[in-house]
Amino acid sequence: MDVSKLTENVKGKIAGASELLGGLKDDAKEKFINYVNGLGDILPVVAETGYRLKGIDMEMSIPPGVDMHFEKFKNVSKENIDKILEANKDKDLLRSLVKALVAADEFHNRLKIGGLKLTDLSVNLSIPPKVTIKFVKEKD
Prior knowledge:
By secondary structure, the protein is of the alpha+beta class. It has helices at about 5-15, 25-50, 80-85, 90-110; strands spanning about 50-60, 65-70, 115-125, 130-135. Helices cover about 45% and strands about 25% of the residues.
């Protein structure tokens, strides 16, 4: 699914679930909606670092949450990632997201779990952010 379709899908989920966020103050709801809508602006830049968005899970709760699922589709050098982050130093969410993905990927590379391969990196945009690394058994 391309980023624009995913962004529109997320916007639709947000709009349709506004009743569920009734317990939040109006300004908090707007901040969350703007936050999620802003993801569409940074996802193409995240892809430049080698990580492609596979899907988003929305938590309609108080507080609301967002789980973003990524796959690593190409290797990008640390120097190039640093250049991308420097060029986007004003985008805190982008920087946090890419740093979390890179840290999880580096952690994964140090693990020696025989027969398992990395399939998914998930970032939960909560405070503090949480990263989940998913492995599956390689086919024999």
